[in-house]
């Protein structure tokens, strides 16, 4: 393996002056442009997702991803969250779509 001389985010795929480092221990990461590995940390495998370095346990859980309404497929960004039992008869939490009013169960 070779040391990664890439910086994640906007500079993926471009050589930069910094070296990617392990977010757990700060050591140099090794691998290719998709999979990074820390030789000092047991289980220290990381991937680039959404411009962020994420560990293998959190891969595919983009925290910045926008959820869309099941009813109209528009973003739920400004939808109102109703917690379970908050309105008296709902056993599940849901987000009310600001566009069509559909209750999107969480």
Number of domains: 2
Strand order of the largest sheet: 1-2-3-4
Tell me the Rg in angstroms.
Answer: 20 Å
Strand content: 15-25%
Number of helices: 0
The residue fraction in helices comes out at: under 10%
**Mean pLDDT rating:** 75
Spans where pLDDT lies below 50 across 5 or more residues: 1-18
Order of helices and strands: EEEEEEE
- Class from secondary-structure proportions: mainly beta
Shape field? elongated
- Number of DSSP-assigned strands: 7
Report on the biggest sheet: 4 strands, antiparallel
Instruction: Report the end-to-end length measured between terminal Cα atoms.
Output: 42 Å
Description:
The chain is mainly β. The chain has 2 domains: 1-63, no CATH class; 66-106, no CATH class. The chain is 0% helix and 24% strand. It is built from no helices and 7 strands. It has strands spanning 29-31, 35-38, 45-49, 52-55, 80-82, 94-96, 103-105. The protein has a 4-stranded antiparallel sheet, with no helix packed on it. It is elongated, with a radius of gyration of 20 Å. Residues 1-18 have low confidence and may be disordered.
